[in-house]
Design a protein that fits this description.
The structure holds 2 protein chains of 2 kinds. By secondary structure, chain A is of the alpha/beta class. Chain A has helices at residues 2-21, 51-54, 76-91, 110-120, 135-142, 170-181, and strands at residues 47-49, 65-71, 97-103, 126-130, 149-150, 152-156, 161-164. Residues 16-33 of chain A have low confidence and may be disordered. Classes of the chains: A alpha/beta, B alpha+beta. At the A-B interface, α1, α5 and β5 of A face α1 and β10 of B.
């Protein structure tokens, strides 16, 4: 019996290693976005949460499918894929899909970088900022396989949940979202 | 017995498929590879050069990531505190400078000078080392301990628990890990996670 439990532990461990090794990393060349504004953007509304406050955005009991993208204005690959999330939000809103963009910008950059970015790019998806230093708790809580690198994306509805530590093209996003809409 | 046979079959399948996927890098207890990389001071650096070291604080970091920049002073402080105790900092810049030009060798030299780096700042030329270690982002730390088998991975993760404010740090993960190694204690948190910039390969 002891051997049985011991073996089961090895199996679990191996499965864990295997899932961890299946991450599909694709990285793309991208120029940093120049953010140099003289205007005052501090009045742009922005919801700011710690992880407890963010939790309600990470689960649902409704029939909606949520696409939660973790990004920051300083993250070049994030900025590159952001328009695809905007496009998805527009194209699939009538199919009960909502995109939420969770910014990990530093709080001292909210007024100087994040808010101007939201305004200038006229972001239509809901943007919230996560301000919580205890990343060692909330990163594995969002997904055990997440190394903490961004961009990262979570797609879920009440039945299904999938986490992606990768960059997306629009086609890839569509392929994934369709698996949630069947 | 039947159960056990079945389990071994599962193990075999899992292991086979594991070998066909890309390696996900080191786990705690693995032996880390040595390297010979160009440093911003013009020399080439290998872990084997450090005959008297008890181990290493290997940090994947770069010029361009805001999280790395936020930690620069703390990385210098780590080296100053632990080099004399046998755990020098070895910084490796894992990004491909073709993708991230502000991380090229010239920019690395500039940064090392302006910030007064007391440790080697190495270019991972061809981006061969970070994938072997399994580093995915900057900054990311691997604390290694010299053993008869080689440099064994003892800690993987973040420097501490507050990237924004060094004075508000509650847990100094890397210091705790190295202190534990120095006093022969168990490392309480051998693995931690923090947000970082994806390594640009």
């Amino acid at each position: 019996m002891e051997l049985y439990f011991y073996t089961m532990r090895i199996v679990c461990l191996l499965l864990l290693i295997l899932t961890a090794s299946c991450k599909n990393e694709s990285r793309q060349n991208e120029k940093a976005v120049d953010l140099d504004y003289n205007e005052d953007f501090s009045t742009v509304p922005l919801e700011i949460y710690d992880f407890e406050g963010l939790k309600p955005f990470l689960k649902t009991n409704t029939d909606k499918t949520y696409v939660v993208n973790f990004w920051a204005t300083w993250c070049a690959p994030c900025i590159k894929e952001l328009p695809y999330f905007e496009q998805l939000n527009a194209a699939y809103s009538d199919k009960n899909v909502e995109v939420i963009l969770v910014s990990l910008d530093f709080p001292k950059k909210y007024d100087s970088h994040l808010k101007p970015f939201i305004k200038k790019n006229n972001l239509k998806s809901k943007v919230v900022a996560l301000d919580d230093n205890d990343s060692n708790t909330w990163i594995p809580a969002i997904n055990p396989d997440w190394s903490g690198a961004i961009p990262a994306t979570l797609i879920f509805n009440k039945e299904k949940r999938q986490f992606y530590e990768k960059t997306f093209t629009y086609e890839e996003l569509e392929t994934e979202i369709k698996q949630f809409l069947n | 017995m039947k159960h056990i046979k079945g389990i071994f079959a599962v193990i075999a399948i899992v292991m086979l498929s594991a070998f066909t996927t890309v390696s996900s890098g080191y786990k705690i207890g693995d032996i880390a590879t040595d390297f010979k990389l160009k440093s911003s001071d013009g020399t080439s650096v290998s872990l084997s050069d450090y005959k008297d070291a008890k181990g290493f604080i290997v940090i994947f970091t770069c010029n361009t990531c805001p999280y790395s920049v936020a930690y620069e002073d703390r990385i210098v402080a780590l080296d100053k505190k632990y080099k004399g105790k046998g755990y020098p900092v070895i910084a490796i810049m894992p990004n491909n400078p073709d993708v991230q030009p502000q991380d090229n060798m010239e920019a690395m030299i500039q940064r090392a000078k302006s910030k007064g780096f007391t440790f080697p700042y190495l270019m991972d030329e061809g981006q061969k080392i970070s994938p072997q270690y399994g580093a995915t982002k900057t900054p990311e730390v691997y604390v290694l301990q010299k053993t008869s088998k080689g440099n064994q991975v003892k800690y993987i993760g973040a420097i501490d628990d507050n990237y924004q404010d060094a004075s508000a740090v509650k847990s100094k993960y890397v210091e705790n890990a190295v202190d534990a190694l120095l006093s022969g204690q168990q490392i309480k948190e051998p693995q931690t996670r923090a947000i970082g910039c994806s390594i640009k390969l």
